[in-house]
């Protein structure tokens, strides 16, 4: 079917000012400020919320506007403490909703809570983490508000001409980066994966204003019921996005048995093990270890890539690492174009040599400290 000939929403049914009209409708011009949805679970704020706050502060400063945070949760949850932390990371105002139906994440009450806040306070930009919760919530909030949502962004800017949010994300399997602007819609929504943006520095003593709101939703009107929290039996506690050191292996390791060389070096360095997609697809390592466009985004202090070619889909997930060391037999491998240090050599020999050298060096240091 020709999409151009039969648009999903016929022009006559589109809300006024939407569709092909790229001018911001008059009634949306009142939208001001940059907001971040603060994601928390059982007493802990997800770090992606603070990473987004750092970005929100930069965007708001460019627009000359303020930063707000939306914090939704149960009656006894410490949302005010989260707000105090948010002020330190750059928020000016915290919009808090306590309600029994908001104890534990469920799509319906959180969608209502967040859309109510947006409709009342009209932020220009709304950012959420591209986590399981953030993706679920962003989609339903954007649909309810009939606004645009750019998912999985890697960069956020303000377009100098339109002053709209310019949200950049990989497309066409990661081979292109596209910048998306939702000129005629407010709020402009975007999700960003954990670790894509840098963690901002908290400013001690910085304060802000707290605004308390109510939800007005009864439990009986919600279809989903939260029965219990169960630990994820499939999760083996791999915390790739927040590891300081990652040793990753690729197809150059030849077989799953050789992956133990990667594990040994990671163990000696106190780091995590990552992998490329072909290694995960071949069943050499768990899917949770995949780094890249369809895996995790990481930002460690040290990323060692062994037998990895450096394809764009892998690169987008790890290129923000502080120091990248590549080990590859091919001196023309693309990974050497962006690695900080390169070792042209056989990973099956280089990895054990590095493991032995680090074990000796770190062992000596520990003896000295003792
Ligand atoms: C839509 C889409 C999404 C994708 N998402 C991801 C993703 O999230 N993550 C990801 O990683 N990939 C992803 N890919 C796959 C990606 O395109 C590449 O195919 C993949 O990253 C290549 O993995 P590799 O480097 O392990 O293997 P290869 O590209 O085969 O590279 C192996 C490298 O090892 C080197 N080598 C060989 N022997 C040795 C040795 N003994 N010692 C040292 N070096 C050696 C070779 O010179 C070569 O450079 C995606 C692809 C698509 C189409």
UniProtKB/TrEMBL annotation:
Taxonomic source organism: Pseudacidovorax intermedius
Record-linked InterPro entries: DHS-like_NAD/FAD-binding_dom (IPR029035), ETF_a/b_N (IPR014730), ETF_a/FixB (IPR001308), ETF_alpha_N (IPR033947), ETF_asu_C (IPR014731), ETF_asu_C_CS (IPR018206), Rossmann-like_a/b/a_fold (IPR014729)
Record keywords, A-Z: Electron transport, FAD, Flavoprotein, Transport
Upper taxonomic lineage: Bacteria, Pseudomonadati, Pseudomonadota, Betaproteobacteria, Burkholderiales
Family per record: Belongs to the ETF alpha-subunit/FixB family.
A molecular function GO annotation: electron transfer activity
Protein name as it appears in the record: Electron transfer flavoprotein alpha subunit apoprotein
Binding site for FAD: 276-277, 290-294, 307-314, 328
Tree of life domain: Bacteria
PANTHER family noted in UniProt: ELECTRON TRANSFER FLAVOPROTEIN ALPHA, ELECTRON TRANSFER FLAVOPROTEIN SUBUNIT ALPHA, MITOCHONDRIAL
Domain Electron transfer flavoprotein alpha/beta-subunit N-terminal: 34-226
GO biological process: fatty acid beta-oxidation using acyl-CoA dehydrogenase
Co-factor note (free text): Binds 1 FAD per dimer.
Cofactor(s) demanded: FAD
